[in-house]
């Protein structure tokens, strides 16, 4: 079947080639006819000599054009193929090979295209693509595959037919493989070149060599695995030698052959098995293959090849560590060291200083970083290794990764892998129960036990790795801060992250979670080290003291270490107060340094304080909170952060300004509201914050606080304009209106809840919940009239009117029903008539206020209220009232309506006279 496919492909190729040739001949004939017409008409044929005529004369168009211009024509065909060879002979360099355009030697560069070549139609170029592909690339590829399969089929045929013995068959296969390799080398040495542009991928010597290597691999494996002619040691050696030789041959035959050799070399250990496997033989062999591959890849800059070699070596290492019953630590350390040495001294070893000084990283370094990092992780956390005390060896591997990353700056992935693995190791030592299942859900442990055994060695290794990351991180960050910004920031980041993770993990594991002055002192040392390191790095910036990413990481780490220090050294109450007050420190530091990160550190203090009060709103715990109103831990716990945030916002406005100032203003306003609200709830619930539902009186106090906060924000914004204050004031106003509409009018309305309104006639719950908010909302609407959007003032005015209406209506009901005014207690006739009179009176009052204040909202509200009163009189009073009350209701309504009409007529008359 395979032979049939080859024959079919050949027939199709022949048909396509013949059809293309006929098309070209027809095109030439048409162009010759056009040229004959031009000659007969007297026009000069040299003005624009056609491509086809030059071809018909037996010369390329480039040659004819060059002759007309008096320039020697460029070489074409075989002459073009010989020109690079002559230049190579003169220079002593080999230029044959399947080189891509970017790999071509300078003397092999293509000549510039001539005028006729530039004028060649794109359609003709496309027509030759299929022909070139079929006649050059596809034919050579299929031929190479056919040769390789043919050798294997020949061996199979001799086996099935029993013509020769196993030894003869293997000898024939080996000879065929060697003949193919030798043939490829012979063709290459005889000056073979790829004569067709775009056919470099069909380099015949490389195809023959690859087919020969394929047959040799199969022959050696059959001699070992099928017939047992040779032992595992010899088979291992021969297969490895073939693989390495194939990789070496890729120097003259191209990348594809190197890939074949690498695959063969990497699968050799899997093909050859032994009753007593020797890890040293495996890893020495892998080290040799890796070094050879890296050296060849370095010469040709084949990044994909060396990355594949690193991946293969890493996979073998991880498989050995995972499956070996008693893994040899020395062998593991050897292959890790060999991999790092190949990376540092072979693959990255010949790069120039200018390459190392540039930013970025070498992406093939990702492979060794990942697998060596996994090796170090296994040595540190796998019980098979930790019980034997191999965690120290894992730490040594991590230190070696840092050393190589420092020595070869482009191997930056080693830094990230080492930092990530170290963080994973020390997060794994934390007992899950020490954090709480509600935070981590036991994800850091297994069956309630930590991943890593925590002992004195683990603690000492953690301290050593933390110090190593600090020293290496800050030194490298300073070295590269002026030339490689991302590299510098990466070193600074891991120089901060790893020590913080190690310190936190050791504190959770070995320290006292309530209060531990020893770990607090260690955190204080980190604060000093990070702050000093950030200043040291900033002085090396260009321009100095710019405060870029590396400095930001250092100072941010100092802030986090300071937060840990406060939590370790103080109780919950003082921690909350001090964390909030700490927001002033970076704000004050902006007087000396204009680092952008300082303002954001203050914002971080706001976030930390919010998280702290969200975790424990009582500041010191519900059992320790005093029941004394106002003067308890809630006042400093919420009030001190509010004052500190306000001061920080003021300081930032005077120095750096920007978004951190806006965030601090928002934090100050939020904590000011929280202070008042939390004190109110504490006082109204007997010193208990987490029990009891919100009452109407409590909600009324919250509403008054919100409205007052909105007015304060408007006033502050008028003196010191700020977008936070402007939008914050409107947000507070909208929030207040929403609470009024939902809770005052519906959810907590005593008309629906039958809640006691109090025994005092005037100063009761209705006064607090409706009249005072109405006055406050009306006052804010009047104050914000020309300072905020029109819709905002109108919204507040409307809410004020509705609150006043509710207060008056509910007060009338309280007058008739007493302390409890539930709706289900019924309505009397006098009470019903009183509502009509009251609503009409309120409508008239709103109309008067609207005219006096020139407020359209109040006038519309009065019209709506009077309309409601009219509907009530005609639809309700007519059926429910009797006798004199029904008459008085209609008389009063008529008098009011006539009075309103007279009032409006006089207003219109006065307006007409004034106009």
Per-chain topology:
Elements: H1 2-40, H2 51-56, H3 61-69, H4 77-91, H5 115-118, H6 122-161, H7 166-189, H8 204-226, H9 232-253, H10 255-271, H11 279-300, H12 303-323, H13 329-347, H14 353-357, H15 366-381, H16 383-386, H17 391-407, H18 412-427, H19 432-435, H20 437-440, E1 445-446, E2 449-450, H21 456-480, H22 485-510, H23 517-538, H24 549-569, H25 572-581, H26 584-589, H27 596-615, H28 634-654, H29 659-684, H30 696-719, H31 723-747, H32 750-753, H33 765-783, H34 790-817, H35 829-853, H36 856-880, H37 884-914
Antiparallel strand pairs: 1-2
Gist of the model:
The chain is an all-alpha fold. It has helices at 2-40, 51-56, 61-69, 77-91, 115-118, 122-161, 166-189, 204-226, 232-253, 255-271, 279-300, 303-323, 329-347, 353-357, 366-381, 383-386, 391-407, 412-427, 432-435, 437-440, 456-480, 485-510, 517-538, 549-569, 572-581, 584-589, 596-615, 634-654, 659-684, 696-719, 723-747, 750-753, 765-783, 790-817, 829-853, 856-880, 884-914, and strands at residues 445-446, 449-450.
């Amino acid at each position: 079947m395979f032979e049939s496919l080859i024959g079919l492909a050949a027939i199709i190729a022949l048909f396509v080639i013949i059809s293309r040739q006929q098309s070209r001949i027809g095109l030439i004939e048409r162009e010759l006819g056009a040229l004959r017409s031009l000659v007969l008409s007297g026009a000069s044929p040299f003005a624009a000599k056609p491509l086809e005529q030059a071809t018909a004369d037996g010369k390329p168009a480039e040659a004819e054009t060059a002759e007309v211009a008096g320039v020697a024509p460029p070489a074409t065909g075989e002459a073009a193929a010989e020109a690079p060879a002559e230049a190579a002979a003169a220079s002593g360099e080999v230029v044959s090979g399947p080189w891509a355009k970017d790999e071509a030697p300078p003397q092999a560069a293509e000549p510039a295209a001539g005028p006729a070549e530039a004028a060649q139609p794109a359609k003709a170029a496309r027509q030759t693509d299929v022909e070139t592909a079929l006649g050059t690339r596809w034919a050579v590829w299929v031929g190479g595959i056919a040769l390789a399969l043919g050798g294997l089929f020949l061996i199979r045929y001799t086996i099935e037919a029993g013509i020769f013995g196993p030894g003869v068959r293997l000898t024939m296969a080996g000879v065929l493989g060697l003949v193919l390799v030798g043939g490829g080398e012979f063709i290459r040495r005889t000056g073979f070149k790829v004569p067709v542009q775009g056919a470099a991928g069909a380099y015949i010597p490389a195809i023959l060599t690859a087919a020969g290597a394929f047959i040799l691999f199969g022959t050696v494996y059959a001699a070992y695995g099928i017939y047992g002619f040779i032992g595992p040691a010899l088979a291992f050696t021969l297969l490895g030698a073939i693989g390495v030789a194939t990789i070496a041959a890729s120097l003259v035959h191209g990348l594809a052959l190197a890939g074949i050799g690498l695959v063969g070399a990497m699968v050799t250990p899997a093909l050859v098995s032994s009753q007593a496997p020797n890890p040293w033989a495996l890893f020495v062999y892998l080290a040799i293959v890796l070094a050879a591959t890296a050296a060849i890849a370095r010469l040709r800059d084949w990044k994909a090849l060396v990355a594949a070699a690193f991946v293969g070596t890493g996979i073998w290492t991880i498989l050995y560590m995972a499956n070996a019953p008693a893994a040899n630590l020395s062998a593991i350390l050897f292959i890790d060291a060999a991999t790092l040495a190949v990376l540092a001294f072979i693959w990255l070893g010949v790069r120039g200083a200018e390459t190392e000084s540039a930013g970025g990283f070498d992406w093939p370094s990702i492979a060794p970083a990942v697998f060596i990092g996994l090796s170090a992780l296994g040595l540190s956390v796998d019980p098979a290794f930790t019980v034997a005390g191999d965690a120290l060896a894992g730490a040594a591997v991590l230190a070696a990764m840092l050393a190589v990353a420092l020595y070869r700056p482009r191997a930056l992935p080693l830094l990230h892998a080492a930092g990530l693995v170290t963080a994973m190791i020390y997060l794994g030592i934390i007992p899950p129960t020490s954090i709480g299942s509600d935070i981590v859900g036991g994800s850091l442990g297994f069956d309630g036990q930590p991943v890593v055994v925590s002992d004195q060695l683990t603690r000492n290794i953690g301290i050593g790795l933390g110090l190593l990351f600090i020293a290496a991180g800050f030194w490298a960050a300073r070295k590269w801060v002026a030339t490689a910004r991302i590299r510098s920031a990466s070193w600074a980041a891991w120089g901060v992250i790893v020590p913080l993770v190690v310190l936190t993990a050791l504190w959770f594991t070995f320290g006292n979670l309530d209060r531990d002055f020893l770990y607090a002192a260690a955190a204080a040392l980190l604060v000093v080290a990070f702050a000093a390191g950030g200043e040291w790095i900033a002085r090396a910036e260009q321009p100095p003291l710019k405060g870029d990413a590396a400095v930001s990481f250092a100072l941010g780490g100092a802030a986090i270490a300071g937060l840990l220090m406060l939590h370790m050294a103080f109780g919950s109450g003082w921690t909350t107060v001090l964390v909030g007050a700490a927001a002033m420190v970076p704000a004050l530091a902006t007087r000396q340094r204009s680092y952008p990160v300082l303002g954001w550190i203050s914002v971080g203090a706001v976030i930390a304080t919010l998280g702290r009060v969200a975790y424990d709103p009582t500041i010191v715990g519900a059992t320790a909170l005093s029941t004394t109103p106002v003067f308890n831990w809630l006042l400093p716990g919420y009030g001190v952060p509010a004052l500190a945030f306000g001061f920080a916002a003021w300081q930032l406005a005077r120095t750096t300004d920007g978004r951190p100032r806006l965030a601090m203003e928002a934090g100050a306003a939020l904590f000011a509201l929280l202070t008042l609200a939390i004190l109110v709830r504490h006082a109204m619930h007997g010193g208990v914050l987490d029990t009891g539902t919100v009452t109407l009186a409590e909600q009324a106090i919250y509403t008054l606080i919100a409205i007052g906060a909105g007015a304060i924000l408007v006033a502050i914004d008028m003196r010191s304009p700020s977008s936070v204050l402007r939008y914050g004031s409107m947000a507070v106003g909208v929030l207040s209106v929403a609470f009024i509409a939902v809770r005052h009018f519906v959810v907590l309305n005593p008309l629906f809840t039958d809640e006691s309104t109090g025994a005092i006639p005037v100063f009761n719950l209705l006064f607090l919940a409706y009249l005072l908010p109405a006055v406050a909302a009306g006052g804010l609407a009047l104050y914000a009239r020309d300072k905020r959007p029109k819709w905002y003032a109108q919204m507040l005015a409307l809410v004020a009117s509705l609150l006043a209406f509710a207060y008056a209506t509910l007060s009338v009901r309280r007058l008739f029903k007493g302390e409890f005014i539930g709706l289900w207690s019924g309505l009397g006739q006098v009470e019903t008539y009183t509502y009509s009179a009251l609503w009409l009176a309120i409508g008239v009052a709103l109309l008067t206020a609207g005219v006096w204040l020139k407020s359209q909202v109040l006038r519309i509200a009065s019209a709506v209220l009077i309309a409601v009163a009219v509907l009530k009189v005609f639809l309700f009073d007519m059926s429910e009232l009797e006798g004199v009350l029904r008459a008085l209701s209609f008389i009063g309504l008529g008098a009011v309506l006539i009075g309103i009409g007279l009032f409006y007529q006089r207003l219109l008359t006065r307006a007409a006279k004034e106009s």
